[in-house]
Amino acid sequence: MIDETREDRLIDTFATLADTLVAGYDVVDLLQTLVESCASLFDIAAAGILLADADGELEVVASTSEASRLVEVMQLSARAGPCVECFTTGSVVSLPDVEDSPPAWQRFRDSAREQGFAAVHAIPLRLRKTTIGALNLLSSVPGALRQQDVRAAQALADVATIGILQERTVRESNSVREHLTIALNSRVVIEQAKGVIAHSHAVSMEEAFTLLRNHARSNHLMLSQVAQSLVDQTLVI
Amino acid sequence: MPDRFSGAEETLTALAGTESRLYEPFLGLLPVDGLSISTFGDFLPAETISASDAQSLRLDELQFDLGEGPCWDALETGKPVFEPNIRERPNRIWPAFSEAIIADELGALFAFPLSLGPLRIGAIDLYTSRPSHLSDLDIRRTSGLATVVSRLVLSRAIRLSQSDSEVDTDTRRQFSRREVHQATGMVLSQLGISALDARLVIQGHTFAVGRSMQEIAEEIIDRRLSFAVNEHQIEESHD
């Protein structure tokens, strides 16, 4: 029964994502929707997507929470942890119990432990033979993901890859690097816009993100457009 | 002619990396015989970045050594200093500097401050050998170009400081980025400047206090450090 409900939600999620891909979209917004879908579909506490920048370093572009501590644990995982291993090997890396982390992953383990994450799964964002990033699923209870969950998560990761590489503004370009740069740069502008709102509204970065997103949604604007206008100071919200 | 001005702006920007030639676009644009661009004050060490001739270099050195002169006043007040006839009819007397230039063949001296947000960077010193004036247009142009020069000179100082500490900051880079971008947003909103300038202000402040970008970004986000514009002037405030 529960599985049926979940299957329905999975279908809904893919339908929504497919609609978005057809209709034209903002890449960071799409990735944000995707990580939030992951959090509701799977038995996890948090999710995030990391993409490789021009130097091959992984950066968080979307996460279920904007809390800097969550971002930090994912960045640590991207330095020495499951995320970077997933990225370099191009395969799913499951760490059902963070206590089993090898010594090299100590900083990641400490940070995960401190924030109550017990298990981490990293799913590659692959384009043929290239890996462009990773989807991270963080769970507060130890345990492996079920096989069908791994398949569903991989399918969502593939949607993310398609989303990044198909973004309208760069569709004519063939360079994967360019697509990634666009996605990462939109994230930079979003962070700056959060700062603008945090200052003008005297709110936290998390609240600033919520305000930013709500404004974009209620006005049917793309998240990165709104962010850019705020940074250019042509828009005040 | 606005096209000559924007041409000078572009030429200046293209000189990033070869800052010793920054004086060049000014010579074609302004009725002056020479000029120098220098950093000094509390923030950056006293140094001539670019000078068109020996006279300009000498004017800088005198002012650095004596700790007074038009460039110091320009930096302190944040406004240009005009001395159209420095020897016959000076507006101000600088006890040591005025004395030191008696034998120099100088007519007019002008100094424009270099600053970005709250950061006081240095000045542009210009001279003519005969008494002379700057027109309103000249003044507007020089002030406009001074902003471009401020960015370039500050970027240069940051670039030079980074070469030795690069390795050190590299390990923190991944964690610092988000917060630096957020802090950039806060500062651009506080000062009403572009994101690029806001980032420079943060970098410049980081450089001035000798700490990491990460630490400064955190201070800004936690509202322990603000560059907000006060009623009359821009000031950094710690509370």
Question: What is the compact description of this entry?
Answer:
Chain A has helices at 2-23, 27-41, 68-79, 82-89, 106-114, 147-166, 176-201, 205-218, 223-231, and strands at residues 46-52, 58-63, 93-95, 119-127, 130-139. By secondary structure, chain A is of the alpha+beta class. A 5-stranded antiparallel sheet of chain B has the order 2-1-5-4-3. In chain B, strands 6-7 form a two-stranded antiparallel ribbon.
How is this structure best described in words?
- The complex is a heterodimer of chains A (237) and B (239).
- Chain A is built from 9 helices and 5 strands; from the N terminus they run ααββααβαββαααα.
- Chain A has 237 residues and is an alpha+beta fold.
- Chain A has 2 domains: 2-173, Beta-Lactamase (2-Layer Sandwich); 186-231, Arc Repressor Mutant, subunit A, CATH 1.10.10.
- Chain B folds into 2 domains: 2-156, GAF domain (Beta-Lactamase, 2-Layer Sandwich); 168-238, Winged helix-like DNA-binding domain superfamily/Winged helix DNA-binding domain (Arc Repressor Mutant, subunit A, Orthogonal Bundle), CATH 1.10.10.
- Chain B is 53% helix and 15% strand.
- Chain B has helices spanning 2-14, 24-29, 54-66, 70-77, 95-100, 136-191, 195-209, 213-221, and strands at 34-39, 47-51, 81-83, 108-116, 119-128, 225-226, 237-238.
- In chain B, strands 2-1-5-4-3 form a 5-stranded antiparallel β-sheet. In chain B, strands 6-7 form a two-stranded antiparallel sheet.
- In chain B, helix 6 (136-191) packs across helix 7 (195-209), helix 6 crosses helix 8 and helix 7 (195-209) crosses helix 8.
- The termini of chain B are far apart.
- The A-B interface holds A 57, 59-60, 68, 71-72, 75, 78-79, 188, 191-200, 205, 230-231, 233 and B 173-175, 177-179, 181-190, 192, 195, 221.
